[in-house]
Amino acid sequence: MSFIGRMFGKSVRLPPERQRRLDAWRALDEPDPGSAHSLLRFVVVDVEASGLDVHGDRLIAIGAVAIDASRIVYEKNFHAVLRQDRASSVGNILLHGIGGSAQTGGEDPAEVLLRFLEFIGKSPLIGFHTPFDESMIRKAMRKYLGEEFKRVWLDLAWLAPALEPEHAKKLKNLDDWTGAFHIVNLRRHDALSDALATGQVFQILQHRAAAKGLHSAFDLIEAARSQEWRAKRR
Prior knowledge:
Nucleotidyltransferase, domain 5, 10 helices, alpha/beta, single chain, five-stranded mixed β-sheet
């Protein structure tokens, strides 16, 4: 194996049709981060996994909803369970509710990931505590598609306290913020339901951001990154 092969592992050889679809996604234009966030399309993403170890655990499900021009597109969303060689632990199943047969009978992972790429396009991605979601998706993308999947993520775990500093000390997780904003999440730890709840949080934060003079996607991303930097410097 070549030096590059040893560094990055074996390359993935996709069937021609799947390679065509991956290449088509790669060729899509990137959105302008200077555009008004109130007019852009964002995609909110949440995942379920077999555990919290990004190195040893597996991606089980992906849920995603689009927010287009500040409107959640309820009529079209994304949710899929990736087929597993073995089911996760009983405790893990009790958390997210995806049973053993649903896991082993899930969809082909490469097909799920290609449809996910086609759903998100090149839209900026949104999540709450995004490093875990990003790491699990990137690991699956490398394994099944040979795709590095380097995307722009906006982490509401940092944007929310940046825009609502008076609540920063007492509101930490998604449940805290949905409770503060009176958002009902009927199926917590369901990837699609959590993505929808996160999307509703984002809609409220968009209004807060505009009132503070933050009008572009770049403004939101920089506000979140600055908040993260300040928090980690304390």
